[in-house]
Amino acid sequence: MSLTSTPSTPSGSPAASAAVRAAAAGADLSGLVKAYDIRGTVPEQWDESLAELFGAAFVRVTGASALVVGHDMRPTSPALSLAFSQGAALGGCAVTQIGLCSTDQLYYASGALDLPGAMFTASHNPAQYNGIKMCRAGAAPVGQDTGLADIRALVERWLREGAPPSLTAAGAITRRDTLKDYAAHLRSLVDLSVIRPLKVVVDAGNGMGGHTVPTVFEGLPLTLVPMYFELDGTFPNHEANPLDPANIVDLQQRVREEGADLGIAFDGDADRCFVVDERGDPVSPSAVTALVAARELARNGGSGTVIHNLITSWTVPEVVRENGGTPVRTRVGHSFIKQEMAATGAIFGGEHSAHYYFRDFWNADTGMLAALHVLAALGGQDGPLSALVAAYDRYAGSGEINSTVTDQQGRLDALRAAYRGVAGVSVDELDGLTVSGTHWWFNVRASNTEPVLRLNVEARDQDVMARVRDEVLAIVRA
């Protein structure tokens, strides 16, 4: 990997002054440290002083002697990532800053350099939020059970008692550019050599896709129509959350106006991609999962394990089996996907939320690689995308329906009682409550952060789906 490094000298100390400690002590860490990352509003919940403590704690908990740090385009990201880097350096850790990057570009750097990493982003959250996604060397996730709880406990102790003094020999902070190497690695994993010319509209949502797409797509036979490529963490055009249908309306309209072959939307940190076909109709993440699974199985000789969470369509395990693979069903959440990927040696994994995981990308998620697979599949044949994905979209789905309830467990108990013992119906509780009939299934899960139950329904046809959906909602909302 070619690079240029510019050393800098860290300043300050995790111990810092009483004023810094007092400001940091005002942070509510129970609301800031989530199951998989750190995320909250700036400066109300956290600021540079607390980011510095997180950097020092990350080094203490993981034992890292070197790490890589990147950040997105939010106005607060450069200062927060620098403070974290300084805290880590003052703990004796050598820090490589890669600057502006997507989350999967940070995972690339962690994997390629075999270093732990920290990415400063709040993904699709509004502008006032920021956060840290952490990983160990090789992009292995850091969550509550794999170090994040210990990092939180250590920072909380330092807030009460004062942080220890910095080491005499502080680590160096250097700069490195990984964008071209990241793009080259992704391009090496998908054969794009024979695709036909395509016209593609890309909505970056003023997020990091505007930084990565031009380099990744460079030299491909694509007519690129960019939308909102200007990096702007205030998100002046729409929220960078394509999972909300309201945020892909502009993309859908532009695809139709341009007569484009497809549209692609990225979220704020560009680790997820969403696809619309030539008519502007959304392509479900389950259909993308099935399409990519078939391609990855073919690439691996027609065999291999594919992970999918329990909310993905029935189509996914069917397509995996049809293409010689073994499907494995997991709970929702990237930590469970990555755990199963590592345990089974799976070649690929997908979630209904448009996270796509690849063995050859250190089991990490990368929406950009999934987008390249879609381009390769579409460009390798003559038909439109709508016809191509029809084979991977076999059932009627409700999408996720949220209901605010005061007694989550009581409503789940009522559902369990309503369907237990019904002939031809099975019930499992791998993640929430999943009830399956011959021609339908539904899952209801409780939110971890708000009084909400999330319902997903799928059936053989629209009428059956609507009937089951309405039956379940009547119980949930009783």
From TrEMBL:
Residues 400-473 form the Alpha-D-phosphohexomutase C-terminal domain. Transmembrane segments: none annotated. Belongs to the phosphohexose mutase family. This is Phosphomannomutase. Residues 33-156, 181-280, 290-395 form the Alpha-D-phosphohexomutase alpha/beta/alpha domain. It is an enzyme of class 5 (isomerase). It holds the Pfam family PGM_PMM_II. Keywords: Isomerase, Magnesium, Metal-binding, Phosphoprotein. GO terms for biological process: carbohydrate metabolic process. Its EC number is 5.4.2.8. Its cofactor is Mg(2+). CDD domains: PMM_PGM. One of its GO terms (molecular function) is phosphomannomutase activity.
